[in-house]
Amino acid sequence: MSDDYILEFDNVTKTFPGVKALSDVSFKVRRGEIHGLCGENGAGKSTLMKILSGVYPFGTYEGRVIYDGKELKLESSAIHQAAEEGIAIVYQELTLVPAMTVGENIFLGREPTVRGAITWDNLYSTTQTILDRYRLDVHPQDVVKDLGVGKMQMTEIAKALSEDARVLILDEPTSALSEAEIDKLMEILRTLKANGVTCIYITHKMNEFFRITDTVTVMRDGKIVTTQPTKDLTPEKLVSYMVGREMKERFPKGNRKPGEVIFEVKDLHADWDDREVLKGVSLTLRKGEILGIAGLMGSGRTELVMTIFGEFAKITQGTLTLNGREIKIKNSHSAMEHGISLVPEDRKRHGLVLMQTILKNVSLPNLDRFSGFLRIDQNAEIVESLRIAKELAIKAPSLHVAAETLSGGNQQKVVIAKWLLSGPRVLIMDDPTRGVDVGAKFEIYKLMNELAEQGIAIIMISSELEEVLGMSDRVMVMCQGRTNGIMNVADATQEKIMQLATGIA
Ligand SMILES: Nc1ncnc2c1ncn2[C@@H]1O[C@H](COP(=O)(O)OP(=O)(O)OP(=O)(O)O)[C@@H](O)[C@H]1O
Ligand SMILES: [Mg+2]
Fold first, then answer.
1. Closest Cα to atom 25, ligand 1: which residue?
2. Same domain for 82 and 195?
3. pTM reported for the whole predicted model
4. For range 442-452, the mean pLDDT
5. pLDDT per residue as tens digits for the range 367-406
6. Are residues 81 and 144 in the same domain?
7. Is residue 458 packed enough to be buried (19+ CB in 10 Å), middle (13-18) or exposed (0-12)?
């Protein structure tokens, strides 16, 4: 490949109150390549990309960004300027307006008009063309909030691609995608590359760097560690650059000794909007055990745990039994009274109050535990929260900063901390390590082991088969709203799980 660079970062430094998010970042991106950006939670990846897209305009950082031979100077008032320059970004957190349709979202702020009136036919037919071009299975008039997270993510990508981009930035695009959707995205990226589009690709899934990138840049603590051709790297090397040490194993060995059955679900059926979403789920859960739940997107895993937690579908048949007694759960509050906690999948919607401080977020569901008569015991609250924040290595200047200032992965850790603090007997975790870097994943796994060793029963939904196999005692596979198999991890293989998940077996 030639030494033709479309982007050059030259000593870029960005500071937030109390945090140096980027310090003297210098590296180059070749024209037409797929350039991976890798680094732990809080390393500065998203911040750097936000400089490129104009969220942090010229003058709010030091150093220079050279784009196609000229210094990039995005102005604070011009939100479409980066797009006009040909720089498109898909942010880590979804930015679609939930109440609007796919078409309205794609054309938000630049709707086609004739004499000042929006030409809806034109808007929707153009949307259809874009969706067709990338063979995306969504309808232009679908309302975004009715789409699953995977389809929302694909809509975000379509939106970014709807203006002719020369540089496309994808910040963890696959964290909410199914295997099939990921394959589709990889295909789209190859097509774009063939058409000369440069792509910057951020992910925590190590295998994706090897699948799609030409070059990888690794960041740690706001600094560049290295930039190398992907072919010179191995997954082990990449991880060690990222965490700054060798990581011999990905899953810590625990000393779990599952005991008697504490929780049981028997033939659960449930309706949501007059549609049967659960069609016969049965499982048992032992004290001190980790039960992994595998299944494809849409297999009903999240629906199951949200329903158990009393926050989703209406149970029409079947029972929940805790400690040998049948229980009814009306809502999350009553679930928690029974000692059942849920680390939800969608941290933005169900997990975090972004404007609140870390401390408030962690202690919010736990007020009963800390409140004395008419006053909250601030000290106990702080001591406990600090302990958990430290265990999870949440990267923040203090517990008093707003959750929205944290990096994506660190927000996820806050959600986990909040539910750990509630002292559950049954802990349900819905994709707990999504968007979390390899080092922090290891910390979360260690914590899960410790909790299980203390006798807490854990249900863990996971989309990563390696994680299911690496962390579970038993694995349940769901397919189309049903339990389609449950086995000891010793008897489970990736093939067997996939066969059960796709309904072949
Ligand atoms: N608006 C903000 N105010 C204060 N601090 C911020 C803000 N945005 C980011 N930071 C801090 O800057 C650092 C870099 O964050 P950034 O979001 O760039 O990390 P990241 O590499 O994208 O991590 P992740 O993999 O978790 O998404 C973090 O310490 C973060 O807390
Ligand atoms: Mg990020």
1. 41
2. yes
3. 0.76
4. 89
5. 555 444 444 566 777 777 778 778 777 888 888 899 888 8
6. yes
7. buried
